[in-house]
């Protein structure tokens, strides 16, 4: 009997040692107490009665609970870290996917953080030179007109200013020639291209302003509606602002003469923004997309082809009922459709800009969306014109009407940034 008891005691002692060595690794300083149990007695009942005192049991439970809470907190922190890393990875992937090209949603461009002023940063040097050459040619033509005017009026002041402007044009031509030579010799002089472009831009702006000052002296010699606006470069500062807002309109007709050879896209002939909606009424041809008419951010693609360097007359009509629209080029309807912002009247109290697309009310211009070319006879009516009325406008008929909402008069617009005015030529060529 004593031998059996001694065997049981040793077995319990060995079990106690094994448990102490194995479990202390998980729970730190832990005490295990072993008690001999009679052969016929329930082990669980005997343990509850004798094995572990109440305070020790409570302490062990609290330690276990604290350990579980610490592990739970660690898991939550790891989950939060994983979510943050996943979010950053998603943003990186989306930015990488959007870099190769531009994104447009509903006919609108995806915004970028930095805007350029000349609009040719992403273009090659050849495109920039071609654009400068076109500008210089336009300035030469205007100077020839000034020479003719000064000869007819014997103006000494006009002659002296003309000579000064001619000298500046010669200097600009030398700069262009220098850049051409640099390109042919392997681009050795392109290090300071941005600075050089800034100087050329500044000189051109000054030159346009001087010519505009000369042209202002001829206002008394021409009717106030016989003029055209010239936007020679893609910039974010050349534009014209209509002095008064549009009224609320449930229908409209917008007509104008345009001449442009810009590529890709002629830009934005006009944009009308109201508080809370920058795209209340916009006509835009941006990038390689067709020309679009936007009303309350809804888009209709127009079948216009006008960037051939010739004058074209375009008209767009629209009615709020069913959103029906029609597009006319040179007096002929080229396309029509419906469901363009149906039952949405054009809102009043906005800002009408010629030559730029507005991202904010009266501003937020982007050079890449600027109109490049000539514009004249921009008129707006608060009704749909008939086919005959549009044809009279396109053929410069004496029966042609002027807009009852906005009419093309020099006194109705303000010009900014070097956009210039000159006598309108298209109707003179047709008659």
From TrEMBL:
Region annotated Disordered, chain positions: 87-126, 183-202
Polar residues biased stretches: 87-98
GO terms for MF: metal ion binding
Essential cofactor(s): Ca(2+)
SMART domains referenced in this protein's UniProt entry, alphabetically: PTX
Biased composition (Basic and acidic residues): 183-200
Signal peptide limits: 1-24
Annotated ranges, domain Pentraxin (PTX): 225-427
UniProt xrefs under CDD domains: PTX
Keyword Glycoprotein: yes
Protein name as it appears in the record: Pentraxin (PTX) domain-containing protein
